[in-house]
Design goal:
globular; alpha/beta
Length: 269
């Protein structure tokens, strides 16, 4: 009888990390652009954090949180605006057009991806070093996921754009689960479509039923475009960082199954 292999996204599938990533992004933004935060009070910071929860579905890689924090600041404080797109910009507009907005603001702010990734990781490392329990407490596992991971009989792999060391800490500390290092593909492992190809190509995985659970519709659509990945069963987690519009769209795509959290946990068990 064939076994099961599950490739799981981390943020938005296993872990609700939006609280931690938003606070880390705010901390990092203050380091990156200290002058912009002169005079910014706690009320505005709290508003930024609230809006970051709304905007979380557009984030593919963590460093984008820093860009969103600064963009929100520009939206609220016209005097610091540098971006040509921030004037009159609404939260809804950011949700709808982030893929177009991101390269514009990166260029106009003279920012580069690698530097922002390094800073975001450094801020998180410092938070962990100085207040491990506080950092862990800013994250939460989705209900039932910890038990499902512990008692699963399937082959489990983590495929995430999160830096690997952070996913590992949260799995151990929050879920009480240790997943071998070679089963965690984090930031720097390459695009998820390439990781899935590697997994299906391993000799020991031949004959297994392949499942990929993701909360970003765009990622699943990129998998569908790759004919070599036709053997994967694809699932959009409806509890993760996606919008109602995306969930409705997924129901019109035959390859994608919209998955409930309770059904996900049962599948892993």
């Amino acid at each position: 009888m064939a076994g099961e292999l599950y490739a799981l996204d981390f943020d938005g599938v296993i872990c609700d990390s939006c609280g931690e990533s938003s606070v880390s992004a705010l901390k990092a933004a203050k380091v990156r652009w200290p002058d912009l935060f002169n005079g910014v009070d706690t009320t505005l910071e709290e508003w930024i954090i609230e809006q970051m929860h709304v905007l979380r579905p557009v984030v593919e890689t963590g460093y984008e949180n820093l860009l969103l924090v600064r963009l929100l600041l520009e939206i609220q404080i016209p005097s610091i605006r540098v971006s040509s797109v921030s004037g009159g910009l609404t939260i809804e507009r950011v949700l709808d057009t982030w893929a177009e907005l991101k390269p514009v603001i990166m260029k106009e702010w003279n920012e580069d991806r690698d530097s922002l990734i390094d800073l975001f990781g450094k801020v998180r490392d410092e938070w962990i070093e100085n207040d491990l329990m506080g950092w862990i407490g800013a994250n939460r596992l989705y209900p039932g996921v910890s038990e499902a991971l512990k008692f699963s009989c399937s082959e489990i792999f983590i495929v995430t754009t999160k830096q690997k060391r952070f996913a590992d800490v949260l799995l151990r500390e929050l879920a009480g689960v240790t997943i071998p290092s070679d089963k965690i593909y984090g930031l720097g492992s390459g695009p998820k479509v390439e990781v899935l190809q590697k997994l299906q190509g391993r000799p020991e995985h031949q004959g297994l039923r392949l499942h990929f659970v993701e909360d970003r519709l765009a990622t699943l659509k990129s998998v569908i475009k790759e004919p070599k990945l036709d053997g994967w069963n694809l699932y959009l987690g409806n509890w993760g960082y996606n919008t109602k519009k995306e969930r409705q769209e997924s129901e019109e795509i035959p390859r994608i199954s919209l998955l409930d959290l309770s059904d996900f946990s049962q599948k892993l068990k």
